[in-house]
Write a structure and sequence with these properties.
With about 200 residues, the protein is α/β, with parallel strands linked by helices. Helix content is about 40%, strand content about 15%. Helix 2 crosses helix 7 and helix 3 runs parallel beside helix 6. The protein binds manganese (II) ion. Manganese (II) ion binds next to strand 2.
Length: about 200
């Protein structure tokens, strides 16, 4: 198991077949303002790949974009809505089809209001992850070891979480509803980018 660091694109052929876990780190939560700094990927076989984009990057990353846009490859996220918007805005691709562990958690762990990745990893996998570097400067010239470990750990558990969450969705009769939510997520992200981030178009108001 190793963490690999790449600049500006993913090397060709470093990922195995099958679903791929994806996460992003940005300069903040306002997608248009806060640039995409890092895209993390894992094929679930033990290695993580971090792709870093420098200030002023052209985001010309053909290998990464090909993987993200591949309609035959399921992408696993925790809170896909944010990552999909950042990827769409900066890389210009729709990184679907989607499985979102946060949505799956909300549709099954109705006994809890704690749907953070750390909560899921603790409860469903019995492991501990640190979120200490979550609010750190991802735009600097160097990413330190603590940031590297944190960034990698955000994609390390998503395959196993999906394996636990699918039977729960089935048990509660909500797999179909979850799938419909996942299918809608790219549109939800586009609504965010288009100015409807804080307005629920399904509400009466
Ligand atoms: Mn993250």
């Amino acid at each position: 198991m190793a963490v690999y660091f790449h600049e500006e694109d993913l090397p060709e052929g470093v990922l195995g077949q099958g679903p791929i876990a994806v996460d992003t780190e940005t300069m903040g939560l306002v997608t248009h303002r806060d640039r995409l700094c890092l895209v993390q990927l894992s094929d679930g076989k033990g290695d993580e790949h971090l792709v870093r984009f420098a200030p002023g990057s052209k985001y010309d990353a053909p290998n990464l974009k090909a993987v993200l846009a591949d309609p035959a490859r399921l992408k696993l996220y925790h809170f896909a809505r944010f990552d999909l918007a950042a990827i769409e805005h900066y890389l210009g691709v729709t990184a679907a089809p989607v499985f979102c562990t946060k949505i799956a958690s909300k549709l099954t762990r109705t006994y809890s209001d704690r749907h953070g990745l750390k909560n899921l990893v603790e409860e469903l996998l019995g492991e501990n992850i640190s979120k200490q570097q979550q609010l750190s400067d991802w735009g600097g010239p160097l990413i330190n070891d603590a940031q590297r470990d944190y960034a990698a750990s955000d994609v390390r558990h998503l395959h196993r979480l999906r394996e636990v969450l699918i039977p729960r969705l089935e048990r509660e009769g909500r797999l179909e509803m979850a799938q419909a939510c996942f299918d809608f997520l790219p549109t939800r992200a586009r609504l965010d980018l288009a100015g409807w981030a804080n307005h629920d178009i399904f509400s009466h108001e």
